[in-house]
Amino acid sequence: QEIIKSEAMLVNPVTEVAKKVQPSVVNITIEVIEYDIFGREGLVPAVGSGVIFSEDGYILTNAHVVEEAEKENIKVTFFNGKTEKAKLVGMEPRADIAVIKVDKKNLKAAEFISVRDIEVGDLAVAIGSPFGFQQTVTSGIVSALGREIPQLIGGEEYKVVVDLIQTDAAINMGNSGGALANIEGKVMGINTLIISPNQMYGLMPTSVGLGFAIPSDIATNIANQIIKYGKSRIPIIGIKMGDSTDPDVPGVFVVQVFEDLPAEKAGIKVGDIITKCNNIVLRTQLDLIAEIVKYNVGDKVELEINRNGKVFTTKVQLVDAPPEYGR
Prior knowledge:
Number of domains: 3
Strand content: 35-45%
């Protein structure tokens, strides 16, 4: 009886996470233009979630939550039930990140944690507005790290929805843009999508324990770029790449080196295999993209190169992609 009583007195960690994080999670309502079968135009509401990024009104969410919103038709509902109009600051659809802003001060900004401090099996608490049910809390674990969803890449080299956190915490439509927090109440990711068997039949997807979140490292870095420049500045090194086919040397195979860009200046050549970035082991080209997108234009990264069996390192200064690069 004493054992049962002691266990009952233990604090539920999900309860503590919810208390800390809920005040930093908002409901986002937008209005999008849709047409009926007679071609008549009308505004239809849609919902998503967001995470308060700074106390002076910046809110982080998914690009797909707000990209179809009509101007001035974004509304934010806070934990206390109050609603404010918001404006779109900017977005990066390739990373599914957007920033909106409300004219409000002294907000409770979320605390973020790097994905490098997260392990598989850690507690994962999702907070958002599934199907419009605001401030819904679900929990599970971090099921996997470093996930890439092939259909999101679409064969284009610079899609950057990479390095995703996989969780079995229930995530549904409306959770997009909301928080995925750890046991300390720190946001490790921004919930972005689910995979559901319903999608194969053209039905509304619902949670089957396959949810994914954009790591906070990527989300906050892009948000800071948007706030500072009004747009994202995802850096490049200036190569066309593929995956190494050498079973003894996994990594990123350099297919092409673009003229006058950092890779060429650093001495990287076609046929090189990039095996590490800042001591992070690379298995595929998506691993390299996942690392570079965490940095900013002007930063330097150290790459480990395998050239016909000879291994060396070189430093590359990241640059913004020129218009002709095709990003």
